[in-house]
Write a structure and sequence with these properties.
Elements (H helix, E strand, L loop, with lengths): L5 E2 L18 E5 L4 H9 L3 E2 L8 E3 L4 E5 L7 H9 L3 E4 L3 H9 L19 H12 L3 E7 L5 E10 L2 E9 L4 H15 L4 E5 L3 H5 L3 E3 L1 H11 L11 H7 L2 E2 L3
Parallel strand pairs: 1-2, 9-10
Antiparallel strand pairs: 2-4, 3-4, 5-10, 5-11, 6-7, 6-12, 7-8, 8-9
Helix pairs in contact: 3-4
Length: about 250
């Protein structure tokens, strides 16, 4: 039997060191998905992940998967694809369309041993991350084909200099990888830190992901978390780094 702390609207998160080892990283349940709670979660290395028939579950796994920007694996085929310029890549031009596309693609849930292909991006999550995007914290990368159709993309949450990736999708070959390459290029240009991938997978490893102990991840997260100024407002530097525009590598 699993015993978890219950969070009401005002309850703070427990220390991430108290998260379960089985299932890996399960920390607490309850609370809400409002923008302040989500911002607080990501600022402390915590993220929500749950299905339609579950309460809101909060996670902080150990180890944590990240992609160091200089370690991103640019394959020859992906480099050729980028050099052909058959796609245009943008930042924050169509967040709603990207998250809805990600939600429409069933995928395995790495937090569950049960075989399922149901999406974990439930309606409540979609609504919550759209609000977080409107607050200027969640961001999307879009890949457009020559007919201006959305061909692939990704979305996530930026905490200071770190991008916490949530999900990606492709409707045309390798377009999700192209979105990731463009994100890495953008982050390097603005001297950002690394991409948080949450949990390791073979696909992420093929892109250069490695794992860190959770304690090391939290230390680096705190070092690079400069999202808000002293008045609790998003800094001008943050807005500049994550503003929209063409980011084709």
């Amino acid at each position: 039997m699993i015993e978890l702390p219950y969070l009401n609207v005002e309850t703070p998160f427990p220390p991430v060191s108290t998260a379960l080892s089985d299932p890996n990283g399960l920390l607490a349940y309850g609370a809400t998905l409002d923008a302040p709670r989500l911002f607080n979660a990501y600022s402390n290395g915590i993220f929500p992940w749950f299905s339609d028939d579950e309460p809101i579950l909060w996670w902080s796994p150990d180890p944590r998967a990240i992609i160091e920007l200089d370690d991103f694996h640019l394959s020859r085929s992906l480099k050729k694809l980028a050099n052909r310029r058959q796609y245009t890549v943008t930042l924050n031009q169509s967040f709603d369309e990207v998250i809805e596309a990600c939600a429409s693609i069933p995928r395995m849930n790495p937090h569950s041993d049960a075989p399922t292909t149901e999406t974990w991006i439930v309606d409540d999550m979609i609504t919550a991350y759209k609000r977080l995007h409107q607050a200027g914290i969640a961001h999307s990368v879009e890949v457009w084909d020559a007919q201006n159709n959305l061909a692939g993309g990704l979305y996530g949450v930026a905490i200071g200099e770190i991008f916490c990736g949530e999900s990606m999708f492709h409707l045309q070959p390798n377009t999700s990888k192209l979105a990731m390459y463009a994100l890495v290029t953008h982050m390097k240009k603005h001297q950002l830190a690394f991409i948080d991938c949450q949990l390791p997978t073979e696909h992420l490893a093929s892109l250069g992901a490695k794992t860190l102990p959770r304690s090391t991840f939290i230390e680096r997260l705190r070092k690079h978390n400069d999202t808000l100024d002293e008045d609790g407002r998003i800094t001008a530097e943050y807005r500049y780094r994550w503003q929209g525009g063409n980011i084709t590598p």
